[in-house]
C-alpha cells in the first residue's frame, strides 16, 4: 500500500510523493526551552517520530532528513534567566537536555538536525533582508514587519476569513503596522535582554521567521513535509508559509502539511498557561516510557486525546500483554525481521495506529498458539512490527521487573530468604517476607521451577 497522509492544505488524504526519493525532508516545530515540557508537548514528538520511522522504512535510513528546531531565545527564557541572574544559555541548555532525555525515554529517535535560533541568527537576518528587498517587509520604529498584503494567498492554509485573520494577529498590535495582520520579523530587545546586530538596529527575531530560516538552512526549501500541533496552523504556519514564499520560494514551501490533535486534560487543551499540565519528566519516574508512548499513540494522531491516569494504566496493561507473549516464547528464535503486512498497511494509511496496535495483539495471540516454524515467524513479525512503532525494545523479563537495579537486588534477596524459610517450613517468616514484597509492589509467582516475580501495575 502506498503511503497516504492527510494534508491540511488539501483537507484530504493524499498519496505521499517526495520531490526526491533519495532525499526526503521532514520539519517539525520543536520546543521553547524555558521549563520542563509537559506530556502534551510530546504528542507531536511521538507522532512525527513514528512518521520518521515509517519514512526510513520506505526510503532507507540515510535518505530521510528530519529537522526539529529549538527556540532558545524568547520572552519566557529571558525572564527565567533574569530571575536566576544567568545567561540565557544556562536556562536553555538545562531544559533542552531535560527535553531530549524525556523524548528518548518515550522512544523518540534523535532528529537528523536540531537547529537552534541563536545559532541561526545570520540566516534569519539574511532572510529578513531578502523580504525587505522584495518589498514584502518594511522597517518601522526599530521593528521590521512582514507585509501580509504582499502574499495574495494569505489565509490559504488556515482558511480563515479576513476578520478572523485580523483577530488572530494579536501579537504586537501597534500603530506602526500598515495592516493589522502584519507581523514582526525583527524587534528591539528590552534593556538587559540578549540582542544581535542587524541592518535595522540591535534586537532579536520574531517567532515566525525563525522556523523559515532554520528550515532553509538545515534542509533547504521547499520541504516535503511540515508538521506540528494543530494550534500552529494559524498564525504560525500561515505566517511561515507567507514569508517563505515571498523570500524567494514562490513555487512551493512545503508539499504536505500534517497536524496532530490536542492532548486534553479535563476537557481543556493541556497548557502551562492554564495550569493543567502533567510534566513528562515526572510521569516517566512512575511509568515506563513505552507506556507513555503507547498512551500518546493509542488514538489516531489527528483526533483529540483525553489524558487520564486510566489511559496510562491501559497502555501499561496492553504492553504487559505483548511482553507476556514474548516472555512465554523466550526459547523461540525469530525467523524473520519483517513487520506484519497488516501493520505496514495500517501505518501507510495516514499513520493509523489504532489499527496497527490491534494487529500487534493479533500477532501476540497467534504467538501463543502457533507451533514450530510458524511460531518463529510470528515472533519475528511481532518484534519487527513493535519496533517499527517504537515498542518492544526491552527484554521481557526486565519489563516485568522494572529498571531499578537496587530494587531488583533487594527483591532477589527477599525471594531467596523466602525460599529458605519455605524450605525450613517457617511459614510465618515466609508470609512476612511475601508481605514485605507486596509492600514494594512486587507480585511473586510460585511455580515448579521456583519463584518468579514482577512489578504490579500502578494503582
Give short descriptive properties of this protein:
alpha/beta, 4-stranded parallel sheet, 4-stranded antiparallel sheet
Structural class by sheet pairing and helices: alpha/beta
- β-strand amount: 5-15%
Averaged pLDDT: 92
Outline type: elongated
**Main pleated-sheet profile:** 4 strands, parallel
Total helices: the number is 16
Tell me the span between the first and last alpha carbons: 41 Å
General description of the model:
The chain is of the alpha/beta class. Helices cover 46% and strands 14% of the residues. The protein is built from 16 helices and 15 strands. It has helices spanning 42-59, 75-84, 88-105, 121-133, 162-168, 207-218, 233-246, 280-286, 289-297, 309-328, 341-348, 353-369, 372-389, 396-401, 405-423, 427-439; strands spanning 4-7, 12-15, 24-28, 64-68, 137-140, 143-146, 183-187, 204-205, 223-229, 254-260, 263-265, 268-269, 305-306, 442-447, 450-455. The strands form five sheets. It has a four-stranded parallel beta sheet, covered by helices on one side. The chain has a four-stranded antiparallel beta sheet with strand order 5-6-7-8. Strand 5 (137-140) and strand 6 (143-146) form a beta hairpin. The model has no long low-confidence stretch (mean pLDDT 92).
Amino acid at each position: 500500500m502506498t503511503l497516504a497522509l492527510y494534508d491540511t492544505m488539501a483537507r484530504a488524504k493524499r498519496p505521499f510523493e517526495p520531490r526526491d526519493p533519495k532525499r526526503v525532508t521532514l520539519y517539525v516545530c520543536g520546543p521553547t526551552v524555558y521549563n520542563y515540557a509537559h506530556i502534551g508537548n510530546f504528542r507531536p514528538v511521538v507522532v512525527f517520530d513514528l512518521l520518521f520511522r515509517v519514512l526510513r522504512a520506505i526510503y532507507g535510513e540515510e535518505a530521510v532528513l528530519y529537522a526539529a528546531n529549538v527556540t532558545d531565545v524568547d520572552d519566557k527564557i529571558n525572564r527565567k534567566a533574569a530571575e536566576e541572574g544567568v545567561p540565557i544559555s544556562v536556562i536553555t541548555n538545562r531544559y533542552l537536555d531535560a527535553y531530549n532525555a524525556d523524548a528518548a525515554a518515550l522512544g523518540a529517535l534523535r532528529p537528523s538536525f536540531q537547529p537552534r535560533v541563536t545559532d541561526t541568527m545570520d540566516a534569519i537576518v539574511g532572510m529578513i533582508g531578502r523580504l525587505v528587498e522584495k518589498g514584502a517587509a518594511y522597517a518601522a520604529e526599530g521593528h521590521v514587519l512582514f507585509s501580509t498584503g504582499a502574499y495574495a494567498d494569505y489565509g490559504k492554509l488556515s482558511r480563515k476569513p479576513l476578520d478572523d485573520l485580523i483577530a488572530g494577529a494579536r501579537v504586537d498590535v501597534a500603530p506602526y503596522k500598515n495592516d493589522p495582520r502584519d507581523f514582526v520579523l525583527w524587534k528591539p530587545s528590552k534593556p538587559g535582554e540578549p540582542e544581535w546586530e542587524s541592518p535595522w538596529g540591535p534586537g532579536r527575531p520574531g517567532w515566525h521567521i525563525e522556523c523559515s530560516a532554520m528550515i532553509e538552512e538545515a534542509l533547504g526549501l521547499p520541504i516535503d513535509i511540515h508538521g506540528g500541533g494543530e494550534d500552529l496552523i494559524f498564525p504560525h504556519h500561515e505566517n511561515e508559509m507567507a514569508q517563505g514564499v515571498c523570500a524567494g520560494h514562490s513555487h512551493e514551501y512545503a508539499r504536505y502539511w500534517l497536524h496532530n490533535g490536542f492532548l486534553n486534560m479535563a476537557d481543556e487543551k493541556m497548557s502551562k498557561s492554564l495550569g493543567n499540565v502533567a510534566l513528562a519528566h515526572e510521569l516517566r519516574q512512575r511509568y515506563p516510557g513505552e507506556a507513555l508512548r503507547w498512551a500518546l499513540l493509542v488514538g489516531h494522531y489527528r483526533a483529540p486525546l483525553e489524558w487520564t491516569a486510566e489511559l496510562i494504566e491501559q497502555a501499561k496493561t496492553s504492553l504487559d500483554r505483548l511482553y507476556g507473549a514474548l516472555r512465554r516464547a523466550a526459547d523461540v528464535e525469530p525467523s524473520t525481521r519483517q513487520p506484519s503486512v497488516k501493520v505496514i498497511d495500517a501505518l501507510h494509511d495516514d499513520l493509523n495506529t489504532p489499527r496497527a496496535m490491534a494487529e500487534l495483539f493479533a500477532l501476540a495471540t497467534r504467538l501463543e498458539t502457533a507451533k514450530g516454524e510458524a511460531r518463529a515467524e510470528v515472533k519475528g513479525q511481532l518484534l519487527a512490527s513493535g519496533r517499527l512503532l517504537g515498542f518492544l525494545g526491552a527484554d521481557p523479563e526486565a519489563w516485568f521487573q522494572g529498571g531499578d537495579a537496587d530494587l531488583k537486588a533487594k527483591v532477589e534477596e527477599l525471594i531467596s530468604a523466602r525460599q529458605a524459610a519455605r524450605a525450613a517450613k517457617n511459614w510465618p517468616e515466609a508470609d512476612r517476607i511475601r508481605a514485605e514484597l507486596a509492600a514494594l509492589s512486587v507480585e511473586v509467582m510460585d511455580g515448579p521451577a521456583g519463584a518468579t516475580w514482577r512489578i504490579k501495575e500502578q494503582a
